[in-house]
Each structure stands twice: as C-alpha cells, then as structure tokens.
Amino acid sequence: MSDDNGDTSKTHYICQTYVDAKGTKGAPAGVKIDKQFQYSTAQEAESRAERASQSPDCAGADAYMIVEDSSSGEISAPTFLVRIGNVPEFDDF
User: Fold this and answer.
1) SS3 79
2) How confident is the model at residue 93 (pLDDT cuts 50, 70, 90)?
3) Is the dihedral of CA 29, 60, 45, 63 positive or negative?
4) Domain ranges in the chain?
5) Rounded to whole angstroms, how far apart are CA atoms 92 and 72?
6) 47-86 pLDDT, tens per residue?
7) d(Cα 33, Cα 58) in Å, to the nearest integer?
8) What per-residue confidence (pLDDT) applies to 47?
9) Beta bridge partners of 67
10) DSSP string spanning 8-66?
C-alpha cells in the first residue's frame, strides 16, 4: 500500500490465486479464488503470481492494483499487472 501524490488515495497491490472448481447442478466447471496476498509494490505482487502459478494446485494467478479513496471508501476497478494460467474473465472478477 502506498500514498499517491499526497492525496487521500492509496494504491493496493494484490496477488490472487485460483483453483479449479467443479461444476455443480449442471453448471460448467471453472475456477474459484483460493488466496489473496497484499504487497507494497507491483513487482512483489507480480513475482508472487509467477511463483504461485508454478504450484500444481494452482489453476492460475492474477497480480493487480486497485486505488482506494480513503476519504470516500471508493475502490477503483482493478488494473491487471499480470494474468497467468486459467483466470476468470474480467467481467467475472
């Protein structure tokens, strides 16, 4: 997390991993969120996503950033830094 230009916003760098999910009651199989890790830099989040994606249990991993407005509590849409493996479509995020 870091302050942006002294204003009231904070940038959060996140690595999110996914595991395969079985379809239920006729729904197709897909992926579900497994773990989330927060880092202080984009490089740390990207590196974790790359390492996590090498695990046989990991279906995929995202590293992304969001900006939080501390005064209003609003959070921006994610800006993806790296997407590796089987990850959900952006609309599903």
Assistant:
1) strand
2) low
3) negative
4) 2-87
5) 25
6) 999 999 999 999 999 999 999 999 999 999 999 999 999 9
7) 10
8) 98
9) 11
10) SEEEEEEEEEEEEE---TTPPPEEEEEEEEEESSHHHHHHHHHHHTTSTT--EEEEEEE
Is residue 65 within 8 A of residue 13, CB to CB? The reply is yes
For residue 26 the two structure tokens come to: 């006729």
Query: What proportion of the chain, given as a percentage, has pLDDT over 70?
Result: 86
Largest CA distance in the chain: 51
Please determine, for residue 1, whether its predicted confidence score (pLDDT) is greater than 50: no
Please state, as a whole number, how many other Cβ atoms lie within 10 Å of the Cβ of residue 59: 19
Token representation of residue 68: 């939080």
